[in-house]
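Most newcomers find our protein records easier to grasp once they have seen one. A learned vocabulary of local backbone shapes supplies the integers on the structure line. Here is such a record, shown just as it appears in the course material:
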Amino acid sequence: MDDATVPTADPRRIRRRSGDVLKDRYMIVERMKSGSMSCVYKAWDRQGQRFVVVKIADGTHGDNDVERLRREGVILASLRHPRIPRAFDAGDDGTDGYWIALDFLEGRSLERRLTFERSLPVLEAVRIAAETCEALEAAHALGFVHRDVKPGNLMLTPDGAMLIDFGVAAYVPFRRARRVTLPGIALGTPNYMAPEQCRGDDDLDGRADLYALGLTLYRMLSGRRALGNNDGVETLIAQMTSPPLPFAHTAPDLVLPRRLEDAVMRAIEKHPDDRFRTASEMREELLAAAP
């Protein structure tokens, strides 16, 4: 495929704030999404002759945007795992802009699928959760906590579930010394944040990700959130204080093996010590409990 056959979007805004490497090697095709910290684009890699994802932060919302994207590139470059997209290129335009290039994933997010289907078959939901555990196990083994596991950050591809967007991930050994967020600031998505994450605790570890995955699995199975449909501050308070709704309340027609229901509820216990200790332990129990 040559450049003439690739449909393109207007790349002028990107080229203005990107370096020569980005402009010369990657041809912007379309804007995929915009977040509070960066913009994500689909691009054609002229050198590799393939589609890639280009993520750009220009510091519009502060220096933390660029720093987080820089860290995400470093994290993804070090996490070589089939369930985590690879970051293989990065650049700086010499001013305040920064970009990284990632593997392009065919498929759609779990969030998008749940928007249309509401809930998933039990075995498929367990498989997605188990595959996400594989990605988390690799990240946790190197000391990283994702801090934003949710349906929107799980891509469903022909090769299975992929965990994406490490933009707010923390490196646990140096979290106190090299903090990107201020002490006591809760960073993440309220509907999937563990109680200790809502409080901004310093001793956050991988069990916070397992809590978020447990809430994600709960939603895949029941079609509803375990703490109701509150939002914002109300959700943060509920994460810290309110017990999750039983499946019998949110999905009375759902039939689950008792062991599987217990595994899901264990993952979303309020205290980290009451959850699974590792992603590997959670994965093994989910697979063993599945019908």
